[in-house]
Amino acid sequence: MSDSMVHASAVSWPRFPSLEKLIIQKAQGLTNFVIHSESLLNVVLKSLKGLLQLDVVAPALAALCVLRCFADASARSHPVARISAPNLEILRWSDAFDLSSVQFDKMENLQLLGPLGTSYFYVYGEEGYNQDCLRLLQHFQFDAIPGLRLKLVYLPDIINREYLMEDMTVLPDIVFLILTVMANGHCIGPSLFHVLRKCTGVRRLKLALRSSDYLEAEAECKSCICDLPPNWTSEQLVLNSLHEVKITHLRGTKHENGFCEAAIQLGTWAAMLKEVTINFCGSITESTAKELCQMLLSFTSREIILKFRVGHGSHMVFFPKTNVHH
After folding, report:
1. Which residues cross the membrane (predicted)?
2. Closest residue by Cα to residue 279 from 240, 229, 237, 317
3. Which residues contact 308 (CB under 8 A, 6 or more apart)?
């Protein structure tokens, strides 16, 4: 597709009056991409090499995903984009973002913001690692958005790297937080604490634990810095709105020991917590799952409905528990 074709509105309502879904990925030559449509409901743009300008005017659009489209532009200049989608409900922007050149018109119906898409917010790293995500969060800091999706990643080796969580100073006003953590053997407690203290009104929390398979054969983290700052377990955090927690992909390995400490603290912070659901990975044995469940139950001093699920292929074994005072 030539640049002249793209510049003259590649997707317009008169040409495609009934088009509802548009997916373009791994394309080249879309230097200036214009989408004007009255019918589009879902747009996914992934890896558009060479994209410099994006213009979207779609009043019916409900979901927009922009992923790694401005990778080339960010190295030379700021991405230029204008998004006019007043009925947008889901926004996933995992790309270069600059407040001076990316314009979002008012999105009063936005239900879920996923600023990281399939990329990450690095807990430890170098200055500038998370600048695009931070700018996007800053843009929406005063908005009430029901759901927020964040992905935190710990590099396997964090020695001599900066702790970057303190750069995350604001989050939108949210009630549902989807937090994915790739811990790589490190303690997740401090980063979990930092995120939650920025959204104390959250009502539902989904915590997904991801790991690198190659760490299974290695010793657990011996780093003295991944549990910093050291006072996170003693600081006050009140989550009176949090009623429901769901934890997924728990494998019960020694690399997740730090998770247990964070889970115990979570029960302390959330005085109104009513229900916790833990979905174990299918690779865990039933006995290991029960052992871990009993350990978590022993640290809970009030009545909470705890549901444990262990997958064996397509078969699910349920362990509903109602804890009483110990």
Report:
1. 174-196
2. 317
3. 277, 278, 280, 289, 290, 293, 318, 319, 320, 321
Tokens 């399939």 locate to 118
SS3 292: helix
Contact residues for 19 (Cβ-Cβ < 8 A; gap 6+): 11, 37, 39, 40
Tokens of 257: 């020991």
The residues spanned by each domain of the chain are 9-112, 120-213+225-325
Q: How far is 68 from 52, CA to CA, in rounded Å?
A: 12
Kindly report, residue by residue over 79-109, the tens digit of the pLDDT: 799 999 999 999 999 888 888 889 999 999 9
Contacts of 219 (CB under 8 A, 6+ apart): none
Over residues 220-276, the pLDDT tens digits come to: 565 567 766 667 777 888 999 999 999 888 876 655 656 666 777 787 888 888 888
Burial class (CB in 10 A: 0-12, 13-18, 19+), 111: middle
Find the farthest-apart pair of alpha carbons in the chain and give their distance in angstroms, rounded: 72
For the 120-213+225-325 domain, the top CATH level (class) is alpha beta
Q: b/e map of 71-99 (b: 16 or more CB within 10 Å)?
A: bbbeeeebbbbebbbeebbbbbbbbbbbe
Q: pTM of the entire structure? A: 0.84
Q: Which amino acid is at 155?
A: L
